[in-house]
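Quick log. Single chain, no ligands specified.
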Amino acid sequence: MTVPSPGLVLLLLSAWLPSAFCSAADGDRIKKRVDAVLALMSYSVFPDVTASDLNIGSAGNENNNLSMTQFGGGATLSDSFPIYLEGTMGYSRYDPQFVLTDGAQARRVPTKWNSLTATGGIGWDFKLYTDSLGGNLVLRPIANFMLGTMASDVRIGSFVIEQRRDADYKFLDGGRLNAYGLGGSLMLDYELISDPQDIDVELRYSAMNLQTFGSTSDAVQGEANAQNLGLYLRRRAPISDWTLLKSPVRYVLEGAHTEYLGQQRGQLGFNSLSSVGIGLELDSSKYPVFITRTRLVARYMFGENTTGYGIGLAMSF
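-> predicted structure:
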């Protein structure tokens, strides 16, 4: 079982938030911002190396307005029973600011919105082809489901409570948004496991509809759609004459590209993100331990108006 690229990757973005996020808001603009937060949840519902950790700050060198972190993994259980299981968890914090005014005076109200998502997936591998090297090409349809929640916290909530009594502003002080998502993915996966090298190539299209439910505040009912197309490549090969833990040390080369579609396209100021990485892998399979392989990969990320770097840690079981 392999856990690919958990959310230890740090991506520093040279980006500015769209005006829909940063402009002063009143009344129904709160609803529009929460719709946007629901859309932001969609970035953490599928495994994605390029967006496993995003931190976006304001143009004025203030604290981060938005941060997202994701970790997870997936694997096919066995060749004889090729069911595929995957799971991810994501956390995000969005710190919008609202301007409340009575016509004569205005006051900026900072808030803090934290969200947590958990996504699962169940699929099946249909083997399409086996090449002369022993590599397998499989078609993998996956059914995905997600549960998420977001809580609102006003840092100076007494001002809001005293000045505003309507449902929109009550949400700012202790409001909650609960969401679920249903969707699916279709993946083409080529995997070669051999002594000279391991190669993994994945092409994946994913889509999910997210909508609020349950005890969500009336002011912020909404829905969003997640769609993306991703390509992931990885090569692992032994470094000659270098052994640790009674096994060869391997170098790792990887690349990834995610193209965001639908509502996600342009949501954070870019349409796509790419990543290239290089690292090392230790093989501990000759010891009676649960973890068989450990990989440490340094990555460079880039996209429209976006550059960054990070460190990724992955393990195989």
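Residues 29-41 form the longest helix (13 residues).
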